[in-house]
Structures are given as structure tokens and as C-alpha cells.
Amino acid sequence: MIKKSEIRFSIALDDNKVPEAISWTATDAGPDIHFAKAINIALWDREQAGTMKIDLWTKDMPVDEMKRFVVDNIGSMAENIVTATDDKEMANKMRALCKELSEYLDKQEQTQERL
Q: Which InterPro entries does the record cross-reference, listed alphabetically (predicted)?
């Protein structure tokens, strides 16, 4: 028997169709409703052999957190590429980019703290 799992996202929109709240539930995550400020979903479309993406963030997501979210996604993709393909060189290049971007963001935050 094949086990199935479902993930459901619920997006509350304002009058201008801008996300105000993002919540999700998953059959493997228990009955609780979880909340997020942003989601990034990438799917490989088997018919078109290309990536389809959904990127949403709530209007209360601070810019600095959005930047960290992007860097975290790149880091996660680095781990994914090693697991899926064992391409350590590609993963290391992605990790190096994450390190560079993190240092850049740290400098930005330090500059803002001084203001």
C-alpha cells in the first residue's frame, strides 16, 4: 500500500490581493495549523521539463528577513543537490555563495544598527 501525505497552504489576501497571512497544515505534521511569513515552492513540471514556482510573502515580512530567507533557500538547495546527485562541487559553490551573501547581509545590518 502506498502512503500518501498532504500539505495544504492557506493564503489570506487583502483587498489588493496581497498576502496578509500564510498558514499551512500537513498530514505528517500533526493537527496544528502552522504560520509563515513567506513560502517558496518550486516544482519540476514533467510535461514541460521546466521549473514552476510559487513565491509568496506577507506584507509584514521585513526586508532583512526576506533576504535571509533567500540565502537559507540557496543553502537548502546546496544540501538537496548533494543528496539528489552527489555533486559536491556544485554544492560547495552554492555554500560559498551563501557565505558571501551572509557576510554581505551582516555588514548591511551592522550599518543599519549604527544609524
A: Motility-assoc_prot_GldC (IPR019854)
Local structure of 9: helix, strand or coil = strand
Q: Is 60 helix (H, G, I), strand (E, B) or coil?
A: coil
Q: The dihedral of CA 78, 80, 86, 87: what is its sign?
A: negative
Task: Report how far residue 80's alpha carbon sits from residue 102's, in angstroms, rounded to the nearest whole number.
Answer: 19
Note whether 91 and 78 are within 8 A (CB). Answer: yes
pTM, two decimal places: 0.85
Query: Nearest Cα to 69, choosing from 40, 48, 94?
Result: 40
Rounded Cα–Cα distance for residues 49 and 62 (Å): 34
Summarize pLDDT for 18-64 with one digit per residue, the tens.
999 999 999 998 889 999 999 999 999 999 999 999 999 999 999 99
Question: Is the separation of the CB atoms in 55 and 43 below 8 Å?
Answer: no
